Amino acid sequence: MCNASSNNQEMEESSEYDYEVFLSFRGPDTRTDLTDYLYTSMTDAGIRAYRDDKELRNGEEIDDQLLQAIEQSKVSIPIFSKGYADSTWCLKELVKMVESKNIRRHKIKPIFYDVKLSEVKYQLDHYGNAIASHANNKRFNDETINNWKAALNEVGALKGWDFQSMPNRGKGDFVREVVNDVLIELKSAYLEVSDCLVEVDNHVDEIMRMIGAHNHETKIVGIHGMGGVGKTTLAKIVYNQLSNDFVNCCFLSNIREIEITCLQSQLISKILTNKCLDINNTMEGKKAIKERLCSKTVLLLLDDVDKASQLDALVQKRGWFGEGSKIIITTRDRGILNVPTLVDGTYELTGMNLHHSLQLFSKHAFRRDCPLEQYILHSERAIKICGGLPLALEVIGSLLSGKIMGDWDTILKELEEFPQEDVQRKLMISIEALNEDQRKIFYDVACFFIGSDKRIAIHMWEGCKFLPHQSLGILQQRSLIKIGEDNLLWMHDWLRDIGRNMIQQGSGKKPEKQQWLWAPAQTLEVLRKKQMGGDVHGIGSIEAICLKFDKLSEYSTIKECLASFSNLRFLEVDSQDFNRNREFILTHLCYQYSNFFQATFGPLILPELRWLSWTHFPMDLRLTNFSMWKLVILDLSMSRITEKWDGWSHIKLAANLKVLNLSKCEELRKTPNLSFQVNLEQLILERCENLVQIDPSICHLKNLVYLNLNYCLRLQKLPDEMGALESLTELLLDCTSIEEIPLWRRMNKLEILSLLGCTLLKKFNFIGCPYEALPDSSGNMKILKMSFSHIRKLPSTIGMLEKLEKLEAGGLYLGGEIPDSIGKLPFLKTLVLTATRISAVPRLPESLITLCFYTHSMETLPDLSNLVNLRTLSLQLWGNLKDPSEFEDTPSLWWIGRLPMLEVLDLGSPYITTLSSDLVLLSQLKRLELQCPNLQCLPSLPTNLSYLSIQHCGKIKTINDLSNLKELSYLDISDCEKLIEIQGLEGLEKLRMIEFVRLPSLARLPDLTNLKKLKEIHLKSCTKLTEIRDGPGSLEILHIENCLNLQKLPDPSNFKNVKVVIP
Predict the structure, then answer these.
(1) What would you report as the CA-atom Rg of the chain, rounded to the nearest whole angstrom?
(2) Torsions phi, psi for 783 (to 5 deg)
């Protein structure tokens, strides 16, 4: 177990960090004020915080203890007060924070206490005077002064808390927000590093073995086990590991929740990357999958299958997909997988043992790998309660995190009252501990919003006064929900089921008394009961419903009953497109139903409605019946509305509208007049394929932050009036027909601009082409994507995008040189330049983590020696091929050993003739891929490699000793015509797969008997190979093809399960 100290200042050592938060502050300004509040609140919440209690300093050198505290902390919080920059200690701390941020996953979250962001970032007013004073005193050299200024500039641009802009806010409330945010940050930061994965490697290895990770056979594998045991987590890890080898990937989640025809449509559209098909019935969907995907080699994950009919509809036969497909199925029901002609193997996932349970519990309760010493006995009680279930360990650990010993006793006693097998009831305690607002948001997510964008849902919750930001933080802290980097809400299916069961139990299992009706059939049942005069007392308390109509006649039920939902705030209607077939309506409907469309309800209905989502909205149904006063989200996607639709006049009344979704409205040619929607924040027009004009009234949307025009294929021009969108932060224009980006000088908050596949785009005024200087509008840009457009060169002013974090560009038209100014981008993390004609690369910024560069026009290798933070490097240089004798004899990529963080290296170029011996210094390198036709030999390789691929290296004759690669699991050597020997192959203890293809000079293989983990050997077109000596008993596949001189094979009786394939 772990040793611990009870002193809050000297917290217990963890596996990596002594402290979690480092507080940097100027003592006279905030020590007894905000800093003291923060420190006390953090330690009370169980956060290991460091604050320097020394009031006076001796000398100029910063204490080693302070430097160590910064290095060992996960988050630093500089508290920028008026006098912060007066202190050289504070400035030195700030420089150290920035250094830690740039070399590891250290986070900086500044507080702007009584100064503005601009004062810090640009050293204005008192900050400017303080820096000038330090410079004038001549005690510090220019380099030190510049480092201080650079640190202030960088940290001043980071997201944090701006207290000075909230003059009416109390410090107690502010500190509470900071502590909650820090708890979320710490949890996500810890789980990012550890992945919170305990005892998972063996499971992954076994599934990878069963599915034949690198062979070319179709394999279908099922993972089964009780809810909460970690099936989805395991399946996702396997899926992610396999995904690099597949072009066609599809992950269908929560299958039990989605109609089969929708799943079939999703599967086809994701694999074929086109719009969703209209599938009318299951048989039609099965036929479409078989016909359209039979030639596609796919990676498919079917998550949470609970009926055999779902499997039958999606994967009835393995021949539905191309040879080499891999399919993973998760289910709680083992019986669903009992299809011997379909499923190749099953794997049961059971609960964790005590040791691993304690480790996982500690990760969530203490954010470390073992309990604090004084909590060991309590932790052992907790893991006994959880019964080895990962979900229970995570949720109950999160519930107890930060609580005092007395609270632990109270909660554990309550949990111990329930039988050991009643884990669901134990998890309910965590939900019952929420306040009313938090519980309503939890139920909303459980019933409707899994997989939804939190930024949209927040608008409804704010309209209902639910305090969503705070509530979501609590739900995350307690592991009841997760929010991904893409802002999508996620909840474990077991927690979803528990939440829904609690709703049903609370209403006595009477649907009309439930506040949430998530099942369309259940909602329709309540409506029909109301229509027939049944007892539906309580219908007025229903807050959220989901409806689905397959028959037009069912709309009569709405006419009579919808007005009864007086407290409804969320309405989702999924209907078929009855407008497509007017003849059907006229010939099959009686007058009363068709007359319904023209009818009115009298007074406006649904006065509390905040969210209205109605796909295929009937054009004859009068929107004027609906109250618009409180509406904040309107989704009319896939409807046949046009710009002349009379419903637009009523939508003008929705003064509080925040989100308008018109995606896939294929008859919309022009956007409506939106001048009345002045509070609109998101406008979604994706796949409005006939849209040709944006109405100039868009200039009135001063609060618009998100505009999605992706796949508006006929849209050629953007109006100048869009320049007035001063709040816009994200603009998506993928695969449109626009030819020019106008010069929008007032759009100064734009952070994300995506122009992927804009093949007609030629002018890019927005980032300085053809102008010499960038407009002010570009200063906040963080992500810029413009691959496969007609942009011919990167502008010389690219360096003025000073906040840019990600740049993607490419296509056959992009050429010239990368501007030198790109080296001035201090935050650039990802640079992807593919299929280009770029001829020169300047010094790139040291902040880069990912670099992918592919060009046909460079004949010299770039100098990347300064990219010390790089983790992924893909370098493909293919220009006019020279005679090999013209190449330099000096080692190529002499700088490679200076990239200590590199994890993935992919090199392809005829200009690489040798590799530096410093390659062996890359201790973090896990994956190495080489395609270098003129490479003469390999140097010693890094010992931590797990994946090695050598292809088209036609000059290599011998691969020197590989036996030091103790972690290597996959070895692929292909198209190396002169290779005659591979040394050290017999010493690769963890090797699982060998693939040797088109090695015509390779005559022999060593004895592989000692490779106890080797599962597969694939040999193709090794025409000189005469024998294969004995292999290990673990071997399962021996695939031999076109090895014409092979005379001797291992004795099959030496293997338990080997499958020999000789076409």
Answers:
(1) 31
(2) -130, 125
- At residue 346, what are phi and psi to the nearest 5 degrees? -125, 155
How far apart, in whole angstroms, are the C-alpha atoms of residue 155 and residue 733? 31
Mean pLDDT of 879-908: 75
Whether the pLDDT of residue 772 is over 80: the answer is no
Residue type, 637: S
Q: What residues contact residue 953 under an 8 Å CB cut-off, 6+ apart?
A: 930, 931, 932, 933, 935, 975, 976, 979
Q: Which amino acid is at 299?
A: L
CA distance 484 to 961: 43
Residues 609, 624: Cα–Cα separation, whole Å: 14
Position 600 pLDDT exceeds 60: no
Can you tell me the distance from the alpha carbon of 727 to that of 658, in angstroms, rounded to the nearest whole number?
A: 13
Between 627 and 859, the higher pLDDT residue: 627
3-state secondary structure of 338: coil
Percent of the chain with pLDDT over 70: 88
Q: Please state, as a whole number, how many other Cβ atoms lie within 10 Å of the Cβ of residue 940.
A: 16
Q: Is 17's pLDDT higher than 60?
A: no
| Cα–Cα distance, 212 to 214 (Å, whole number) | 6
Determine contact, residues 755/761, Cβ cutoff 8 Å. Answer: yes
List, in order, residues 6 or more apart from 820 with CB less than 8 Å away. 799, 842, 843
Give the Cα separation of 806 and 198 in Å (integer): 32
Place of tokens 């370098």: 875
Question: How far is CA 151 from each of CA 93, 94, 157, 812, rounded to the nearest angstrom?
Answer: 10, 6, 10, 39
* Residues 496/516, Cβ–Cβ less than 8 Å: no
Question: Nearest-CA neighbor of 180 among 468, 529, 580, 535?
Answer: 468
pLDDT digits (tens, 9 = 90+) for 253-293: 889 888 899 899 999 988 886 666 678 889 999 999 998 89
Would you call 274 helix, strand, or coil by DSSP? coil
Strand partners, 1039: 1018, 1061
Structure tokens at 754: 């995506």
| Cα–Cα–Cα angle for 788, 792, 793, rounded to 5 degrees | 110
For residue 199, name the pLDDT band (cuts at 50, 70, 90): low
Q: ∠750-753-759 over CA atoms, to 5°?
A: 150
> What is the model's pLDDT at position 766?
57
| Per-residue H/E/C for 448-482 | HHCCCEHHHHHHHHHHCCCCHHHHHHHHHHCCCCE
75-80 and 111-112: which strand pairing? parallel
Q: Residue 28: what pLDDT?
A: 92
Task: Decide: helix, strand or coil at residue 541.
Answer: helix
Identity at 598, one-letter amino acid code: Q
Q: In angstroms, rounded to a whole number, what is the distance separating the alpha carbons of residues 188 and 476?
A: 9
Classify residue 1049 as exposed, middle or buried by CB count within 10 Å of its CB (0-12, 13-18, 19+).
middle
pLDDT for residue 440 is more than 90: yes
Between CA 366 and CA 320 the distance in angstroms is 48
Token readout for 615 is 């796909």
Q: Check residue 120 and give its pLDDT.
A: 92
Residue 594 is predicted with a pLDDT of: 41
C-alpha triplet 649, 651, 656: angle, nearest 5°:
140
What's the one-letter identity of residue 1056?
K
pLDDT band at 662 (very low <50, low <70, confident <90, very high): very high
CA proximity to 941, closest of 961, 914, 911, 913: 961
Backbone phi and psi for residue 287, each to the nearest 5 degrees, phi listed first:
-65, -40
Compute the average pLDDT of residues 627-642.
94
pLDDT for 503-562, tens place per residue? 998 888 888 889 999 999 889 888 888 878 777 777 888 999 998 877 766 666 676 677
Residue among 886, 464, 382 nearest 658 (CA): 464
The model's pTM? 0.77
Structure tokens at 396: 């109950």
Identify the CA nearest to 426 among candidates 396, 394, 384: 396
Which helix (H) or strand (E) is 94 found in, with range? helix 88-103
